[in-house]
Amino acid sequence: MTKLLRSWVESANSATTQFPLNNLPYGVFSHDGGKPTCGVAIGDQVLNVAAMETDGVLSFEGTLSTGSWNAFMALGKTAWSDLRATLTKLLSEGADQGIAKYLVPASDVTMHMPFTVTEYTDFYAGKHHAFNVGTMFRGPENALPPNWLHIPIGYNGRASSVVLSGTPVVRPNGQLKGPDDTAPRFGPSQRFDIELEMGAIVGQPSNGPISVSEAFDNIFGFVLLNDWSARDIQAWEYQPLGPFQAKATATTISPWIVTAAALEPFRTSTPEREKPLLPYLQEPAPMLYDIALEVGLAPEGKGETIITRTNYSEMYYSAAQQLAHHTSCGCPMRVGDLLGSGTISGPTKERRGSLLELSWGGKEPFTLDTGETRSFIADGDTLTLRGQAKGDGYLVGFGDCVGQILPARALPA
Amino acid sequence: MTKLLRSWVESANSATTQFPLNNLPYGVFSHDGGKPTCGVAIGDQVLNVAAMETDGVLSFEGTLSTGSWNAFMALGKTAWSDLRATLTKLLSEGADQGIAKYLVPASDVTMHMPFTVTEYTDFYAGKHHAFNVGTMFRGPENALPPNWLHIPIGYNGRASSVVLSGTPVVRPNGQLKGPDDTAPRFGPSQRFDIELEMGAIVGQPSNGPISVSEAFDNIFGFVLLNDWSARDIQAWEYQPLGPFQAKATATTISPWIVTAAALEPFRTSTPEREKPLLPYLQEPAPMLYDIALEVGLAPEGKGETIITRTNYSEMYYSAAQQLAHHTSCGCPMRVGDLLGSGTISGPTKERRGSLLELSWGGKEPFTLDTGETRSFIADGDTLTLRGQAKGDGYLVGFGDCVGQILPARALPA
């Protein structure tokens, strides 16, 4: 296992920072009312790489001055590794500290969307989650759909609804119909939920089918992703063409993109195949990552309870497999496409990645440390996703992925 | 019914042109190797409105010089009506012909995508189509899903796969599994199909639920839309989260955007409701359009057979209802979002909008004028969608929406 790379930014050498020199995640920040600017997290500081490019310290065709990482991603893999290597060198212990003037305390900045989401696809590729949900609806014998072990099942989501961590989320209204109701009504979702996911960011375009290896190479990095889901809206709308309004209120991502390069030491294999995959989906090497994940729930004005702990390595399909499948029909992919992993549940009850599973469809409400119970999200609740890969004496994190639920809009008269 | 508006561009006064002065559709063209430029069709000419803006004859904040109609759409309704009124005046019979120098023969231009598709949503809102497909799979008693008469069912499609008329379409490969197969295989779709649709273009953004009236006002115009569909890929993949790779190979649109203003004389009501709609979906006025539609199929190197004739007025839900529903959960909409109507089938066999229906799932192949039969599309076939609203002595058309099918890519070794 790789060891901590020491930096002259002292806070980056802590065993508890999410942002040691090994990480160098990419975000967009503003400071003192300035415009959104590309930055890199190091310890408790943010490095203003846009200003460094303006001053000629870095040179990436002006892409670092665009207020988004899309243009830099489009430059390709050589630029990706060049920037990482340059920053690693400049920030290493013993290096000249001339770039210290480009550091801004993280506590003084406002974060913005790190990239423009071109299109958003969400998958259903966690086997424990699919099994749990299937069991609730169809019983354990028929829990997994017949295609599940052959296809990384996905659907297109709504890019316009992807928001940055910290953005409040208004509980959606929608069509609701209980099993005994004769007709649907329109009102606030009563079963509003999270989905704990990782988001993979496509950093290079493709214009036809690509292999799993090519797909792996085209992924720039990862964010934490919370796919807010209205289970009751979904139950009534999703047959026959899948979820639509149930998934379009908001999807929250973490402020920092952790690059595939930073996650390289944490690569791990997908689980053993229960049925052989078709050749176009077979992985030539481990392409999943060992990233510990947790979700905290804090009722309004109260302390947080950690409601689940799981790991990205629980996925049955890697992001590379999902991306390869996504292109199999010839579908063009573009820089900034975001792929949600699917809900990441573990094999045991306390490792489930959604309230639907934690409360078993609302039948088994769970108790918070405050003594309150929850089946689904209550107004005012704040949900926080956290993730970290654990190295030898260091962590690699994404920053918190947070959202508070506000009450539904009043219905039109 | 409104009459032909006469123009000094003589070809625009023909009873058979798709582009009389009443139409003035918006497209993007290039000429003599120049860059893509905003243009307006009039008779057999294209008016270079970008050059007119450069010369100060038009003034729309430079939006006409962007090579796409998105920026102009973003200006809003006042700009939309100003440009239409100005062009109508400048091109009217009797007006000074000083702008004749901005006309280019349509036969000399190359067309390009008229707008950048921000996100693409496809609906399933034609009742005859839903009933036909449902009958094939579940029998006539259970043909319509229980939610169908309450919700304009939609799913998110893939904007990156939307292409301009004339772009060849490569038959997709994908996972296929027959009912008796023990495992899926990967290969070319054997049931590749069209869906005859209209596409509505969102011309104004919204950031929360909007009413049907507001939705109607936010729609800039319409294109013909062919949602190419791999029925066999879809059959295996679509449960439980809907179509994905089956619909992501390509969606072809017509070269010209016909504005809502040009279609105003052709407004018509959706059919009588079989069950009352919830208030948020009720239309305050007729919001559908009477547009005659047809599809031609030409085998490679042979003549075309018209395989279906139908009308946009057959839809159960209007684009305004679909857009209002799309926003009901708070989903933000953006300028350039494209909404496919869903397949437009009529009540009789010869009015069906897909080969799936025309051949009744492949069980009843139909015969072309060439004597050949078809159940689904053969390699080399060219499919052409046409649409026109019929005024008193004039037509309003979109230009042909064409695609030829090329053989599938060779599979990787």
Break the fold down into its secondary structure elements and pairings:
Two copies of one chain form a homodimer.
Chain A: E1 26-31, E2 37-42, E3 45-48, H1 49-54, H2 70-75, H3 77-91, E4 103-105, E5 109-112, E6 120-123, H4 127-138, E7 154-156, E8 162-164, E9 169-170, E10 173-176, E11 185-188, E12 192-193, E13 196-202, H5 212-218, E14 219-227, E15 229-230, H6 231-237, E16 251-253, E17 258-259, H7 260-263, E18 267-268, E19 288-289, E20 292-298, E21 305-311, H8 319-326, E22 338-340, H9 355-358, E23 366-367, E24 373-374, E25 382-390, E26 395-397, E27 401-406
Parallel strand pairs in A: 6-22, 8-16, 9-27
Antiparallel strand pairs in A: 1-2, 1-5, 2-3, 3-4, 6-7, 10-11, 12-15, 13-14, 13-22, 14-16, 14-17, 18-19, 20-21, 20-25, 23-24, 25-26, 25-27
The number of distinct helices of chain A, counting runs of at least 4 residues, comes to 9
Structural class of chain A: alpha+beta
Poorly predicted sequence stretches spanning 5 or more consecutive residues of chain A: none
Largest sheet of chain A: 8 strands, mixed
Total beta strand runs of chain A: 27
CATH superfamily of the largest domain in chain A: Fumarylacetoacetase-like, C-terminal domain
Structure description:
The structure is a homodimer of 413-residue chains. Chain A is of the alpha+beta class and 413 residues long. Chain A folds into 2 domains: 10-112, Roll (SH3 type barrels); 120-406, Fumarylacetoacetate hydrolase, domain 2 (Alpha-Beta Complex). In chain A, 17% of the residues lie in helices and 27% in strands. Chain A has 9 helices and 27 strands. Chain A has helices at 49-54, 70-75, 77-91, 127-138, 212-218, 231-237, 260-263, 319-326, 355-358; strands at 26-31, 37-42, 45-48, 103-105, 109-112, 120-123, 154-156, 162-164, 169-170, 173-176, 185-188, 192-193, 196-202, 219-227, 229-230, 251-253, 258-259, 267-268, 288-289, 292-298, 305-311, 338-340, 366-367, 373-374, 382-390, 395-397, 401-406. In chain A, the strands form 7 sheets. In chain A, strands 6, 7, 8, 13, 14, 16, 17 and 22 form an 8-stranded mixed sheet that branches. In chain A, helix 5 (212-218) crosses helix 8. The longest helix of chain A has 15 residues, at 77-91. The first copy, chain A, is globular. The termini of chain A are far apart. Chains A and B meet through strand 7, strand 10 and helix 6 of A and strand 7, strand 10 and helix 6 of B.
